[in-house]
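Title: Prediction job returns without error message
Component: structure pipeline
Severity: low
Priority: P3
Assignee: unassigned

Description:
Job completed but the reporter wants confirmation the result is attached to the right record. Sequence as submitted:
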Amino acid sequence: MKLCQLRVSTFLNMLIILVPSVILAQEKVDKETIKLYTDCNCEKSYIRQEINFVNHVRDQAQANVQLFIYDIANGSGGRTYKLEFEGYEDYKGIISKLSFDSNANMTADDVRKGLVKKIKNGLLKFVIESDMGEHISYSIDNKGMDAIQDIDFKDPWNNWIFEIFGRARLNKESSRQSFSYAVGFESDHVTEKWRIRTDLQLNQANSEYEQDDEIYTSERFRYSGDGSIVRSLSDHWSAGIFGGARHDTFTNLDFRYYFSPAIEFNIFPYKEVLRREIVFAYKIGYFHSDYIEPTIYDKLQEGIFNHSLDVQVRYRQPWGNIYTRLIGSTFLNDFTKNRIQLSGSTSLRVIKGLAVSFSGNFQIIRDQINLPAGDASIEDVLLQQKQIATEYQLGASVGLSYTFGSAYNNIINTRL
């Protein structure tokens, strides 16, 4: 039964994919028929160039077809794009929803070509209803016919993705120079029920600063290993186990290991995560630290039980995007040792052509038990060799834009 449904579904998909080969008699068609507004994290210029049988408008209010593309990381190392079309005016009531999956082996050109093909597929309903409906023809090539035959879905990697990476950076001035490198290994196993992750990293950063014929040097070294296993329990609940270890000279850690079970609840079903989510995640666990230098509490090692609550709110809507995250954590043996982290970003379309954006983050920090005793030296301050005590961190930004002028211009010109 599943194979039969797959063949039918695949055949229908092949039929819709005809659009890229649609022959449009554009000189006889009013190009004002479809006015498309596209909102996406993608190359809009390429879309305007490749889809030339509609009018692309820059203002949402002037469109009779609106396209919103939401994307999120997927289990193949790429991204899943959800395309949502909605018609207005003469196309009111026409809705189309499609998806496109990229993977780690695809180039940027492969991704944009795949998105354009999907956009053309989604526009088919609107093209048929427009004056252009009488000027299109379609066919299925041999490759399309072959695709509806038996398909072998065996995955030799069993949904595992692996990545090995390395990078190096050099900066040099007359009185300052720095060199850093990082190497690492990551693995990710994603199914409908399970997600298993591993992240191993090695980082080193060396800096040198000269002032008044004195040279100050700094060496920062860190290695870490983190892993997690998460199980989907239902459309709203999931549970997992997190663990890891690290060495970090910047934070005075000779060696730390941790272990934290967790549970998560999403008010909305997980299938709606691309559009909206309100998530509550609770962790409780234990970490043990061996320090390089005695801490401000005169400790060379200690073990702590802690817990945290993580709340995330995200909305991706035609009127804009909202993201807020609040994390509160504390030690179970001493509630005065705590940390509160609040971050968020908002992008809103206020009126025609006017958009406003805000972003910011704020932390109240009262859990720096790892700080080494004694005052920070000039090297520590200039070269950020060691973590410095602080009670808070704050950052904010605001942006405003207003666009006006011609709303109908499909010409692509990248000349100097």
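Comment from assignee: result matches the submitted record. The chain has two domains: 19-138, 160-402.
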